[in-house]
Amino acid sequence: MAFERDELLRALDAIAAMKERFPVMNPAASIADIKRHVRGEPERFPCVGGHKYFYLDWNLDIWRCEAWSEPLGSVFDLERVEDQRDRCTACMMTCYRDTSVLMHAGVAVAGAVTAMASGHLLKAASVLFRRSVAESLLSLAAESPTIARLR
């Protein structure tokens, strides 16, 4: 089913409103980022696909995501597969968008630790004190009851 831009934005608003009464699994920050994508605005959360999150097919090939044009390599060569850290925001697949929002703060902490270990304290601070990191932490806190129920 194809939606017109405004129709899709209204549907996303309805989904966000439904979260108040019904357990919708999509974090509010992810829905907001998808709305930015639909409007052609810059998104806040780069995809973790190909960096911390992969798609494994039946041939045991690793892909950045299902929509990517070619595999990154075999599962047996995972340690040699290069991280894809190019701030991809090409799609609206929620399995990647939602995960990217929820993992964003953790990825930022790992990046800050690496920067600090290299003596780049200002870079570490700039990574940690981004609005997107705070939004990621807030999303994780907001979604934690739903996540806990799923365990």
Principal-axis shape: globular
Strand content: under 5%
Radius of gyration (Å): 17 Å
| Helix-and-strand structural type | mainly alpha
Count of beta strands? 3
Percent range for helical residues? 40-55%
Placed side by side, the strands forming the largest sheet appear as: 1-2-3
Put simply, the count of helices is 5
Tell me the distance between the termini: 32 Å
Quote the average pLDDT: 90
Query: How would a textbook summarize the main sheet?
Result: 3 strands, antiparallel
Poorly predicted regions: none
How many domains? The number is 2
Summarize the structure.
The protein is mainly α. The protein has helices at 5-18, 28-39, 94-117, 121-128, 131-150, and strands spanning 55-56, 61-63, 73-74.
Describe the structure.
By secondary structure, the chain is mainly alpha-helical. It has two domains: 5-45 and 89-150, no CATH class; 48-86, no CATH class. It is built from five helices and three strands; from the N terminus they run ααβββααα. The chain has helices at residues 5-18, 28-39, 94-117, 121-128, 131-150; strands at residues 55-56, 61-63, 73-74. A three-stranded antiparallel sheet has the order 1-2-3, with no helix packed on it. β1 (55-56) and β2 form a beta hairpin. α2 packs across α3 and α3 crosses α5. The longest helix has 24 residues, at 94-117. The relative contact order is 0.14.
